Amino acid sequence: MEGEEGSWEKRLGEEEEKIFVSIRVRPLSEKEIARRDVSDWECINDKTLVYKYTIPERSLFPTAYSFDRVFGSEASTDEVYEDGAKEVALSALSGLNATIFAYGQTSSGKTYTMRGITDRAVMDIYKYIDKHSERVFVLKFSAMEIYNEVVKDLLASSENSGPLRILDDPERGTVVEKLVEERVQDKDHLQKLLSICEAHRQVGETSLNEASSRSHQIVRLTIESSVRETRPGDNTSSSLVASLGVSAHLNLFQQELD
């Protein structure tokens, strides 16, 4: 594990800022299998997706599409996270702002995939924190939903969950006014906050899904860290001096394509 951790940290130091695009092909649903439908897409390798022309009207479109990584319908969420999201998620621990963005039509598997990625990212972040006792980490959590062009705080109580305003701050950039940001106590507390957000999301029935997530969701985890040092003349580790501060955001975002 130490070797794996060191390898992604080394790659982060060598690579410039970039966008990594991956595709996950969902398996056929039970209804589609019952209708004896077939998938229109085939992964011929880990970077290429081929359209098989079951719809004549699409015969003029390209047949093959290339991406940074392609995951077939048999790929597990573990595989998607390890090869497509882990390095991005953990880059926030090195002071880089990172965003994992899921985009697709209704019932394409965005919520399912992002739940799995979020759970695994939380586990890895806390594994890293536990191994680096020489640093002090502070985690802060916020979450919002955009539904019918209205921004809602997913952590706010029902009586305080009215529309929020988006403002341009000269120092901080784009901010959401009065968005609740809660300091995270531990891993269990973070999982509880995620559960609260899930319960507050808008869902609705579609032709493909009886409980589709009918909104855009943004979850932000702010990670701040500083070197743990002992004050001069103090032999106890409880006295801390903040230095070499690192702060970064990990954004987990999914958008509905209608």
Short précis:
The protein has six helices and 15 strands.
Keywords:
258 residues; alpha+beta; 6-stranded mixed β-sheet; 3-stranded antiparallel β-sheet; 15 strands; globular
Radius of gyration: 21 Å
CA(first)-CA(last) distance = 41 Å
Largest sheet: 6 strands, mixed
- The string of secondary-structure elements, in order, is HEHEEEEHHEHEEEEEHEEEE
Helical residue percent?
25-40%
Tally of strands: 15
- Uncertain regions spanning at least 5 consecutive residues: 204-212, 235-245
Written description of the protein model:
Strands 6, 7, 8, 11, 14 and 15 form a six-stranded mixed beta sheet that branches. This protein has a three-stranded antiparallel beta sheet with strand order 2-3-4, with no helix packed on it. With 258 residues, the chain is α+β, with helices and mostly antiparallel strands. The protein is built from six helices and 15 strands. Helix 3 crosses helix 5. The model is unreliable at 204-212 and 235-245 (pLDDT under 50). The relative contact order is 0.15. It is 26% helix and 31% strand.
